[in-house]
Amino acid sequence: MRPAGASRTVLVVDDDDSIRMVAEMAMEMVGGWEVLTADGGLAALAVVAERRPDVVLLDVMMPGMDGIETLRRLRADPATADIPVVLVTAKARPAETPAWADLPVAGVIAKPFDPMTLSDEVQRLIGWT
Amino acid sequence: MHPLSYRQGMGTPRSPAVQRRAFTIAVPSAVLVAGLAALLLDPMFSIETRQAASSVGLVVAGLTGMAACGYRAAQTSGRRRRSWRLFMLASGVAIVSNAYAAVAGVDPVESPSRVADGGILVALVLTIAGLASFPSVRRRGADQVLMTLDGLVVGGGALSIVSVLVYPRLLATTSDATSEQVAALLIPVLDLVLATVALLLVLRSAGPDRPSLLLIAAGFVTYTVSDLAFAVAVAQRDFDFGTRLDLGWIIGYLLVSLAAFHPNGLEDEPDERTVLSDTRGSLLVWGVILVAGVVQVTLGSQVHGPSAFLWLGIIVAAGTRQALLAADNASLRRGLERRVREQTADLERLAKAHQVLLTSVGDGVYEVDRRGRITFANPSAAEALGVPVAQLLGADAHVLFHGDHEDPFGATECYVRAVLRGDAVVSGLADTYARADERFPVEITASPVQAAEDDEPRGVVVVFRDVTQRREVERMKDEFLSVVSHELRTPLTAIRGSLGLLAGGVVGDLEPRAASMVAVAVESSERLTRLINDLLDFERITSGERPLRLAEVDSGLLVASAVHQIEGLAEPLGVRVEVGDCRGRVVGDEDQLMQTLTNLLGNAIKFSDRGDVVRASVSQRDGEAHFDVRDEGRGIPEDQLESVFEPFAQVDSSDTREKGGTGLGLAICRSIVERHGGRIWIESEFGLGTTVRFTVPAAP
């Protein structure tokens, strides 16, 4: 269930500025989330450490530290291990990603996504409906 | 000519049954005639009666023999026909000679007739010619000469025996031998030769001819007896026509007649099963000489005069025969040796050709015995493994190829063992072989080495190919596709997202015309997404890169979740999706079967009109699950039921735009279904609706 009273904070991690912008607007203006952004894995870890969002939307293919490594670090740190993560990836099709099922994530959303339903989908995946 | 009328024509073969019946009548008839003649020639009858009986008997038997030989000639064909014609001619000549002697009143004792005796000699020569041309198993020139020599030796030997027993009396009285008397002596000699040749032919001829030849030989034995007795009687000036001596001639003719009637050997087909034996011929020849020699030594007088010439003849003939046989055998042996040499050379050439083939082939080939030891390896195998062929031979393939590395198959899963267990051929299996310190990927095909299909394999032959390069190319292609799909989808995500936000009015309400244009842009960007997805799927599925993860799946659950996924598409179009009877479980890849079903349901919905019903159901028959997706849409023309499965083929090219399809959906479905070992097809009535059916194996 959604935490009562507290505002909902989401961290959007993507190396692509335009996607970051679209996701930010979709979460904020359609879903009413407080949105934090990061353009890479390392930046994301820093933001998480500082602001501890309710959920992380994590791109997988990023230069430098990619999404999978970022996820591993988040899970490795007891302070962040229980923050739900939703992967947002251009390679979400079953044919391309046979191993997704084994990752410790709340769910996977395929790119391109529908901005009008993105927030609902995220909430469904993390069980806030 | 009509076949039937041909059969009824003159001189055509009777059926063997008819021929057998004729023979069974001929035998008692011949016995009756011979018995009657024997009775009438009893001394209690007057000489006139006996002479009349003898004449009638001879004429009847002679004419019967001639007619029988003529009949036989008409029944047979080829070389046998020629032989029987010669026998007929000989009988005719003999009868005419006898008739001439009778009519001219020749007294064989006082005034022998050269004409009559000459006639008989001609008849005998004709008979020899007939026998010589009789078909036998092996008829080479040397063989015929050999047979004639054998005849001479055996005949001479028999003559010698007879001479010791009979001729002393004969020769004693012929010190003033006239040429007629010599001729009289020649006749029994020729009789003997004939009997011998006939007997030798029995040894050498094809099986079916033997009874006839045996009867002819018997006939000439009786001639010989009578002719000898006649010669002695004439020499002793004590011959009277009309005694039991004549019986030999009558019986001789009768036996020849019976030979002509015998049903065997009508067809002109030498029986190859009868194998000629030189040994039996030699045994017969030397046996006769031995007996003749023993008789000569024990009972005979000193060898001189004609008897000496006879022995000289016998010895020369026997020697020649043996020399001929030896020469013949030597030439046969040379021929055989030459053929063996040629065939050995052929075999060597063949083996060499195979060797060249195996050493030239680019794939590695090796053979292991039942214990897994390498018994053969071609140079390509040695090169790939970095080990000389000599070092490969005798080595344990398992240890050598997998080295100290972890064995991907383990001792029990090894394909070599699998093939030895009788799992026929293992094909296209991936393995990794060791080369020095590195390992390389291979694709192998292992087959049993067995002489016959049912034999236990004596080993396994493995063909392997280094697929390092191919794997590299595949990896590069994968990487390329991966990058392309990511790079295409990233800007598409931004476009789709921005347009979505615009269309959703998040950044302010749009003027109606702008809203509809944005809606078009949203729809187009979605179609572009689907196209990219389908292209990648199609590529992966058709290249076999997306392996089937087979499991038992409940068909009802499959259909239900596919329908659930697609309902969002159906609702806005006003199409109802129903789930019919869904029975049983199937064996398949759940994801891919889901993809197939959602594809088919999506098509059905897209091509339905508002208010139509789309229905999905599953039935089981013959070990297969039949999935049906039926719609009430406009249907597909019959000539396009097959072509719609081609990539980018739609019934109407405007469909692609109108219905938002990519043109790859059915092609992907067909690929998936066929990889499951199933079939997919469409049944449609144009204007009334369409049913797409596919099958996958049912769970056992």
What Rg of chain A, in angstroms, do the CA atoms define? 13 Å
Content of β-strand of chain B: 5-15%
What's the overall average pLDDT of chain B, rounded? Answer: 80
Unreliable residue runs of chain A: none
The portion of residues forming beta strands of chain A comes to 15-25%
Helical fraction of chain B equals: 55-70%
Element-level helix/strand string of chain A: EHEHEHEEH
**Count of helix runs of chain A:** 4
How far is the first residue's CA from the last residue's CA of chain A?
A: 7 Å
- Alpha carbon gap, first and last residue of chain B: 67 Å
How many β strands of chain A by DSSP? 5
Radius of gyration of chain B: 50 Å
Largest interface: A-B, 23 and 30 residues
Helix residue percentage of chain A: 25-40%
Q: Order of strands across the biggest sheet of chain A?
A: 2-1-3-4-5
Enumerate the spans of chain B where pLDDT stays under 50 for 5 or more consecutive residues: 1-11, 270-276
Q: How confident is the prediction overall: mean pLDDT of chain A?
A: 87
- Please work out how many helical segments of chain B DSSP would assign: 23
Task: Give me the count of strands of chain B.
Answer: 12
